[in-house]
Specification:
Shape: globular
Number of helices: 5
Order of helices and strands: HEEHHHHEEEEEEEE
Structural class: alpha+beta
Length: 275
């Protein structure tokens, strides 16, 4: 009897990790495929805009909003949950037409249950939460611009050149290192639709390790901001999509290299120095 139990325990110890490993690899493949679709959509948008990159966040006053539509080309409703302007400012629903309005490419590897749960079958809530919690965050501070991250400031202030004007790449043709520059990375957030403190997967923005000063600390599974909302959900690695359309899993420590984030970065520990 004890021999049988021992054999069963041994088989369980051998087989279960293999099953979980296969499931994990399948989820990785699914997410990378979704990321490739997102990168293709991102490139198509830029081509249609004559090389102009889609902003990560754009449209708060004094800027005018950019067009954003959901299924069948319908504009985002004015009475939508949360804020119509917030939905339109974020990149997901502006990129949606290039994904055929199929947001499966922007939901988590286990489906969009978290977004659906938060939405409670309400279209307005779905539009809002799906714009807030896509699977991948955009590196908008350095690629395309992010109004909430010093993007789209005036070139001059009181007749003086603004050192924060256009420090990011805004045109496809201006990018010098398309093979390494990150556009999207798997993301997470502590801004939960259920108002809990648990770190959840999915957020529309990721941050670089450095800005004028350091922004990342040691990776913390419970604190998304510890590494700029980047999610190392694949055994310590994150899904990353670069300008040239490549997608890969990159260990979180390798993503501390600023040359992956800013096209003008000259070394791994580079920081922006406004002049």
């Amino acid at each position: 009897m004890f021999v049988v139990i021992a054999i069963i325990a041994l088989l369980t110890a051998v087989v279960l990790p293999s099953i979980f490993g296969v499931q994990n690899r399948a989820a990785q493949v699914k997410e990378l495929a979704a990321l490739r679709s997102t990168m293709t959509a991102w490139t198509q948008y830029a081509m249609d805009q004559k090389g102009e990159l889609i902003p990560a966040f754009y449209g708060n006053p004094p800027l005018d909003t950019l067009p954003a539509f959901y299924q069948d080309g319908k504009p985002i409703p004015t009475d939508v949950y949360g804020s119509q302007r917030a939905i339109v400012c974020r990149w997901p629903w502006r990129l949606a037409p290039y994904l055929g309005h199929d947001f499966s490419a922007l939901t988590m590897q286990d489906g969009d249950n978290s977004v659906a749960l938060a939405s409670e079958n309400d279209l307005g809530k779905y539009l809002y939460f799906s714009s807030l919690y896509p699977s991948f965050g955009m590196n908008g501070m350095w690629v395309g611009g992010d109004q909430e991250r010093y993007g789209f400031l005036p070139v001059e202030i009181k007749g003086q050149r603004n050192p924060l004007a256009k420090f990011y790449v805004s045109r496809l043709s201006a990018i010098r290192h398309p093979d390494r520059l990150i556009v999207f990375a798997s993301s997470r957030t502590n801004q939960s639709a259920t108002a809990t403190d648990a770190c959840r997967e999915g957020y529309f923005r990721v941050e670089s390790p450095n800005w004028i000063g350091p922004q990342w600390s040691a990776y913390d599974d419970q604190v998304a901001q510890s590494c700029g909302n980047v999610s190392a959900r694949w055994q310590g690695a994150a899904s990353v999509g670069t300008v040239n359309g490549a997608t890969e899993l990159v260990p979180i420590d390798e993503l501390r290299d600023m040359r992956r984030w800013a096209d003008q970065a000259t070394d791994a520990k580079w920081r922006f120095a406004p002049k």
